[in-house]
Every structure is written in C-alpha cells, then in structure tokens.
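Hi everyone, sorry if this is the wrong subforum. Our group has a chain we'd like a structural model of before ordering constructs, and none of us has done structure prediction before. Sequence below.
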Amino acid sequence: MEIEKKYLINKAEIPFEIENFESHLIEQAYLCTDPVVRVRKEDDSYYMTYKGRGLMAREEYNLPLNETAYSHLLKKADGNIITKRRYLIPFNENSLQKPLTIELDIFEGNFKGICLAEIEFESVEDAESLQPPTWFGKDVTYEKSYHNSEMSKQIFQVV
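Answer:
Right subforum, don't worry. Here is the predicted structure as tokens:
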C-alpha cells in the first residue's frame, strides 16, 4: 500500500541547496493509466509498477525489469515519457515516530519548471496529521492532474 501526500513547490523558496542531497535520475512511461501500469528507469535500475485506484492511498506493486525488457516496454508506452531528478531529503516531523523522506522531483523535458514534493507514510492517520515544512506550497494530493500518470496524457502543441 502506498500512502503519500504531494505538494507543489516553488523552487526559489527551498531554503537549502538541493544538490547537497542524494538524487536519482528517473525516466518513466505509462502502458496504462487505469489501472496505472508504469515502467521506470531509475539510474541503472529498471521496474514495472502497478498502482491501484486512489489519490492518497492505493495499492502499489513493483517488479524488477532488466534493461532489455524496459527498452522493449518503453516503445509500447502511450503519451509523454516523464523525466525528472528526484532528491531525497530527510524530514523529521515532530508528531511522527519515524523520520520521513521528502522526495523532491524537479521535472525536465515537457514538464520543465514543475517541482513537486512527495512524502510517503506508514498510515493514513500519519499522512493526515502532517505539518508540512513552511517552504511547501499547495497540497495537490487530491488533484489528479498532478499525478504523473495524468501528466503523461497531456498534449503539447508545437509552436
């Protein structure tokens, strides 16, 4: 079960240098968006992911792929290939027992300029009790348009 909240971020308001944190280059594409079936390359690792319905809490299963299988499935994907750099930022929220990680995604390509932060939780109660950092922007957890699977379906017009 994946339980996560998602926030829009104004990159200019981040109060530290994100380059000081571990990061991963991610490329992902969608074979299906209902249910979500995604293939992802994260640095030199490859996965296929199934995600059930839901916005904050939903089923999620990851299966390993090799590079050949990923390349084959990538050719079958619909819509936009999403590329982003994900920074892993430790976050100790006082009301929770376990330290959390902010996954800060800086998008590239068609989505350059978009910056989103996600935090995964152990329970819905923990997610709902989150006091986000002051530099977080609007909570977009329940706005489907900010889910990567929906972004993959956006149409861009060549000017």
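For your construct planning: The mean pLDDT is 94. The radius of gyration is 16 Å.
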